[in-house]
């Protein structure tokens, strides 16, 4: 008796450890209610920063009322939402409308969680094809983008002036590196970005990777090595700080906001913060190796309709989704989120209202979905190897060539 | 009722004893349900996850094929496995040694009850009071390669700055330093209360016999603290094995796995990617549980031997 009680005690204490992986079926139970109840429609979004008094939530309520339904909205942290959505689908209580980060769409589609736009009769014809591609897998479309964001280079005018660099001359990698060299010679810091070992780092690396002409299916191509060598050399020569290895896009922005950096690779969403920095800034597209705008990855969410047992619910979900993505509402939403719209018509309206957005509209036009080219769920596996590779090269534990060769063989094995 | 009484009364009062048993079971039920729902079932699910080949599709739709120990084999064959195991052992071992010895030194120091000792002791509890996310973020900020306060200090005294979090050779050391700092208060508090329980007349007797303070520590304090030390170390071991937040916030297990332990690796497999790999993630988690369990059983065994 004493022994067994002790063993139980030990098991109980040690199973604290299990918390790390224990996959809890209970965590989504609070969202279970309502998905089959009368006229209540559940919407999940990754914008927890908006509360019930925000324009976003008011729009959700209004679109629900217009469709003859009551909307119950839950905002989740974006990193949390993928697992929440998978667990909810496992328990059979998915929300009616799920707004989710675009590279996750193919994972959820692969899991059979999402309906296609053919099932729900959602009209996606007005959406720019390069943005829609992130939600397409094997010729089927699994949602509609609510808007898009992407990366470009912010620059600090004062720092560039002091170093006698004209941002208009930065057209390709050579001119960019030359500009960084002048900035460093003038005693300021060159460029900051985020090369952290997560998806965020891959997102930041892709404009350079794609800008070299490299392809995600061949991580160790000569072009890919060139792009990683560009980053590695910047670190070696002190044009970029060593802290990029640990920078998120937010901490990298904080470095830029300190006023000591000439350039920062960052996204549309920082525009509002850029105005608060207190120095004059400008934005140029990320140059590709040979010149011209590099394809940056598209960020931003898709509005999707998860599979329901009761297919009769799709009609109302479709109305809600069309309402959210309609021209007029998309303009409001994308302005609130600081996104670029997904349709040409709304983009034109945005630029008319705020000419500063022009460079972003162009960047979004050149951008590419991470899961595009029918990569789908192969992308996350490739991306993981890619961030492992640039972390290895930037930290100096491997040469760019060795790091990418290892990454390619690991990615090939993982995606076989 | 005492055991003797039951034995004597048993033949005559059998029915009543049975009803007493029912009542006993009734009292046990909540605990049993609690244990099953919150400990046994998650453990079983974790084991189940680790023995099936789950894809995102079969996770949602069901029907993941049983794959035996394939996930474990895949995990062991993974190039991350041996480094992660080494890091887990080094992280746990080094953290424990420093936490325990510094905690012990401070406990003995504060046991002398000088003026201000209570205030100073309270100060040492600060790491314990802060939420882990706050202290880890602060460490991460202090250890920043370019703008961190530690490197500024190093520069001020003419030492080359160190890439604490971004160099493969320093990342593990950095997270260990932060973890030791966070773990000291726990060791200090438990060992300090253990010291209070040692009767002062033993020290007086030792002093009368001419023992030096060094001898008093090794011959009196240390042996008498052994049970407390054992439980402190065991709890410390379990806490340290599963440390996740500090490492994740400070380095994400990087650069390239150089500070990855089983805890962060398990998280990374299950949740750190757009495409979760629940099977291997659960397998790593289970290995971690087994490691902790082995030490737990060792502890129970040594304790029983000490008692008998």
UniProtKB/TrEMBL annotation, chain A:
<dbReference type="InterPro" id="IPR006059">
    <property type="entry name" value="SBP"/>
</dbReference>
<protein>
    <submittedName>
        <fullName>Extracellular solute-binding protein</fullName>
    </submittedName>
</protein>
<keyword id="KW-0732">Signal</keyword>
<keyword id="KW-0813">Transport</keyword>
<feature type="signal peptide">
    <location>
        <begin position="1"/>
        <end position="22"/>
    </location>
</feature>
<dbReference type="Pfam" id="PF13416">
    <property type="entry name" value="SBP_bac_8"/>
</dbReference>
<comment type="similarity">
    <text>Belongs to the bacterial solute-binding protein 1 family.</text>
</comment>
């Amino acid at each position: 008796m004493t022994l067994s009680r002790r063993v139980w005690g030990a098991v109980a204490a040690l199973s604290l450890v299990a918390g790390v992986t224990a996959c809890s079926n209970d965590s989504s139970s609070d969202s279970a209610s309502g998905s089959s109840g009368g006229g209540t429609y559940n919407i999940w979004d990754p914008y927890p920063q908006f509360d019930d008094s925000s324009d976003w939530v008011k729009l959700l309520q209004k679109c629900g009322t217009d469709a003859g339904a009551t909307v119950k909205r839950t905002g989740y942290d974006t990193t949390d939402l993928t697992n929440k959505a998978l667990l909810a689908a496992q328990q059979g209580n998915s929300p009616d409308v799920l707004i989710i980060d675009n590279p996750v769409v193919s994972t959820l589609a692969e899991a059979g969680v999402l309906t296609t736009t053919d099932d729900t009769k959602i009209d996606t014809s007005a959406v720019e094809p390069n943005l829609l591609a992130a939600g397409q897998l094997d010729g089927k479309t699994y949602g509609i983008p609510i808007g898009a964001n992407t990366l470009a280079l912010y620059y600090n005018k004062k720092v560039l002036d002091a170093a006698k660099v004209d941002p208009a001359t930065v057209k390709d990698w050579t001119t960019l590196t030359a500009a960084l060299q002048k900035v460093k010679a003038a005693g300021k810091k060159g460029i900051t970005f985020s090369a952290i070992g997560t998806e965020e780092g891959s997102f930041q690396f892709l404009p350079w990777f794609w800008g070299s002409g490299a392809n995600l299916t061949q991580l160790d191509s000569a072009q890919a090595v060139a792009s990683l060598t560009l980053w590695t050399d910047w670190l070696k020569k002190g044009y970029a700080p060593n802290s990029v290895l640990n920078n998120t896009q937010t901490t990298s922005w904080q470095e830029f906001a300190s006023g000591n950096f000439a350039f920062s690779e960052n996204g549309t969403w920082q525009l509002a913060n850029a105005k608060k920095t207190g120095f004059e800034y400008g934005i140029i597209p990320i140059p590709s190796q040979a010149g011209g705008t590099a394809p940056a990855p598209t960020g931003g969410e898709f509005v999707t309709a998860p599979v329901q047992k009761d297919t009769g619910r799709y009609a109302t979900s479709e109305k809600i989704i069309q309402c959210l993505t309609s021209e007029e509402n998309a303009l409001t939403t994308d302005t609130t989120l600081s996104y670029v719209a997904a349709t040409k018509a709304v983009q034109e309206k945005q630029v008319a209202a705020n000419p500063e957005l022009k460079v972003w509209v162009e960047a979004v036009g050149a951008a590419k979905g991470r899961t595009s080219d029918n990569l789908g769920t192969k992308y996350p596996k490739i991306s993981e190897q890619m961030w492992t590779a640039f972390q290895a090269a930037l930290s100096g534990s491997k040469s760019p060539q060795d790091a990418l060769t290892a990454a390619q063989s690991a990615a090939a094995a993982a995606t076989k | 009722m005492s055991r003797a009484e039951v034995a004597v009364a048993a033949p005559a009062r059998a029915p009543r004893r049975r009803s007493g048993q029912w009542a006993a079971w009734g009292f046990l039920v909540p605990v049993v349900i609690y244990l099953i729902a919150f400990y046994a079932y998650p453990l079983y699910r974790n084991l189940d996850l680790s023995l099936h080949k789950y894809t995102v599709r079969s996770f949602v739709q069901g029907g993941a094929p049983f794959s035996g120990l394939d996930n474990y084999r895949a995990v062991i064959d993974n190039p991350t496995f041996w480094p992660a195991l080494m890091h887990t052992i080094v992280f746990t071992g080094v953290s424990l040694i420093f936490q325990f010895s510094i905690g012990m030194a401070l406990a003995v120091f504060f046991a002398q009850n000088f003026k201000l000792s209570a205030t100073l002791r309270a100060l040492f509890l600060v790491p314990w009071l802060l939420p882990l996310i706050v202290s880890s973020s602060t460490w991460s900020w202090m250890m920043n390669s370019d703008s961190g306060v530690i490197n500024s200090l190093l520069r001020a005294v003419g030492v080359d700055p160190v890439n604490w979090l971004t160099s493969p050779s320093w990342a593990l050391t950095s997270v260990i330093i932060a973890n030791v700092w966070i773990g000291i208060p726990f060791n200090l508090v438990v060992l300090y209360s253990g010291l209070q329980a040692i009767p002062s007349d033993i020290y007086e007797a030792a002093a009368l016999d001419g023992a030096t303070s060094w001898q008093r520590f090794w011959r009196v304090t240390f042996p008498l603290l052994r049970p407390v030390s054992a439980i402190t170390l065991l709890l410390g071991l379990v806490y340290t094995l599963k440390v996740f937040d500090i490492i994740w916030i400070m380095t994400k297990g990087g650069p390239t796995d150089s500070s990855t332990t089983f805890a962060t690796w398990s998280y990374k497999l299950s949740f750190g990617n757009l495409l979760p790999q629940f099977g291997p993630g659960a397998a790593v988690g289970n290995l971690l549980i087994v490691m902790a369990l082995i030490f737990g059983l060792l502890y129970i065994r040594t304790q029983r031997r000490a008692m008998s």
